[in-house]
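lol forgot to send this yesterday, sorry. struct tokens for the thing we talked abt
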């Protein structure tokens, strides 16, 4: 109980000799101050944690704020012991008195003091509730702030998108160069090409015609050569007069007009035709060779030279290096652009501090869709937090029972004030040389101190209990 008396700010000696209800009330005040401290610390931690971040700092601030508020409430409760029973006093004051006299004789000073204390407590409670609202409605407020911030940063996002597209277009251009060179340097592309695969339809038809003419010439040459061999045999048989066959005449010689002479004429014609066919065959072969050579040159022209391949590889490596450099610098370039936009004021930072949240809360309350719901919930939160913080002070100021401790306390203060005044007066008289009056004042002061010591000694003894269990006042 001693610890609760200490928290309640009561004089332990005086409370022990007071009534039982005084001791219960003092203990209740101590407990309520503990609850107030815990509640204010929790509310402060909850209200500040979302933007301070550092848990140690938030805990320290919450404990300090809770301590200040609790000590202030404690001071109000201590001072209220001197004003206890104000409601009863006001009721007795206005009872059975004329209206004008009631108004004229009211203890306005005490009334103003009490309500000023309550007003200060309400201000503290409403301040805590406002900060708590900013944290309690955090997800809704955060979403609303992000929507507004997203709309405000339309120019920033467009500028960043343009910059990123520009950088990625540069990367794509270099990558296209790499892909084109890779296609040219592909092993299949570098493999020899069948010349005929490059021939056009007309060239293929021409080549087929030449081959057909060549075959026809060969067949005609073979036929002429066979006919010439037969004619030579016939001429020889006629010249020698051999009659190996019935078609021969059997007369030797090759006179004009003879069959031998006819054979010679036929042979001469065949020789001439054979020369013509041979020349045509050579022309057909030459034309075929020229066409095939042209196709081969065309196939060869499609293959790059070693120098060209080396040049392509160098260009490809350079383009690939630029792609890597651009990709590696992409993040840094975007960060530099972002810093530039932030410095120029194009980027609007997201404000999520208490000021921004409180302002956004007022904006949401004005929303016709969810505003009434938020306003009602906000009022309920404020009233609830205010009640929990102010309730102990209100209970102490307006609902304190009649107290013997308050009487003891007033007497103690009155005695102390009287002794202080006597000491001051004795000092003044001593300074003016009035020794006899000083001695008398000192004697009276000693008597009063002895009386106080005796009362303290009586307070240390167990209090007497009456039938109701209350101590004698």
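and heres what i got for the seq, position by position
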């Amino acid at each position: 109980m001693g610890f609760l008396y200490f928290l309640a700010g009561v004089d332990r000696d005086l409370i022990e000799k007071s009534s039982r209800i005084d001791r219960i009330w003092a203990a209740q005040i101590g407990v309520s101050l503990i609850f107030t401290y815990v509640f204010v610390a929790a509310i402060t931690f909850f209200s500040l944690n979302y933007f301070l971040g550092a848990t140690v700092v938030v805990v320290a601030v919450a404990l300090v704020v809770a301590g200040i508020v609790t000590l202030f409430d404690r001071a109000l409760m201590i001072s209220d012991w001197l004003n206890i029973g104000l409601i009863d006093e006001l009721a007795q004051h206005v009872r059975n008195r004329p209206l004008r006299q009631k108004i004229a004789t009211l203890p306005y000073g005490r009334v103003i003091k009490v309500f000023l204390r309550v007003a200060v407590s309400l201000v503290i409670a409403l301040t805590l509730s406002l900060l708590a609202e900013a944290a309690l409605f955090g997800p809704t407020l955060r979403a609303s702030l992000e929507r507004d911030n997203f709309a405000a940063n339309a120019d920033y996002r467009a500028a960043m998108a343009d910059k990123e597209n520009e950088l990625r277009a540069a990367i794509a251009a270099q990558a296209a160069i790499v892909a084109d060179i890779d296609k040219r340097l592909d092993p299949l592309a570098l493999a020899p090409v069948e010349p005929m695969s490059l021939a056009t339809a007309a060239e293929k038809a021409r080549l087929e015609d030449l081959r057909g003419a060549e075959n026809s010439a060969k067949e005609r040459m073979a036929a002429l050569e066979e006919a010439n061999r037969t004619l030579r045999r016939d001429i020889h048989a006629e010249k020698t007069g051999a009659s190996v066959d019935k078609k021969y005449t059997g007369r030797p010689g090759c006179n004009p007009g003879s069959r031998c002479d006819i054979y010679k004429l036929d042979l001469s014609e065949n020789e001439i035709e054979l020369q013509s066919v041979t020349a045509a065959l050579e022309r057909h072969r030459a034309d075929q060779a020229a066409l095939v050579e042209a196709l081969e040159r065309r196939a060869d022209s499609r293959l790059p030279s070693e120098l060209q391949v080396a040049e392509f590889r160098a260009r490809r490596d350079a383009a690939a290096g630029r792609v890597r450099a651009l990709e590696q610098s992409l993040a840094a370039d975007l960060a530099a652009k972002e810093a530039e936009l932030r410095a120029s004021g194009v980027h609007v930072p997201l404000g999520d501090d208490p000021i921004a949240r409180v302002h956004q809360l007022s904006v949401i309350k004005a929303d016709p869709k969810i505003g009434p719901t938020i306003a009602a919930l906000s009022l309920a939160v404020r009233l609830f937090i205010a009640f929990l913080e102010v309730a102990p002070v209100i209970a102490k100021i307006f609902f304190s029972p009649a107290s013997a401790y308050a009487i003891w306390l007033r007497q103690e203060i009155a005695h102390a004030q009287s002794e202080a005044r006597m000491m001051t007066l004795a000092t003044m008289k001593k300074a003016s040389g009035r020794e006899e009056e000083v001695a008398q004042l000192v004697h009276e002061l000693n008597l009063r101190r002895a009386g106080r010591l005796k009362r303290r000694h009586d307070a240390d003894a167990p209090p007497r209990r009456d039938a109701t269990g209350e101590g004698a006042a």
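The radius of gyration is 62 Å. anyway ping me if u want another try
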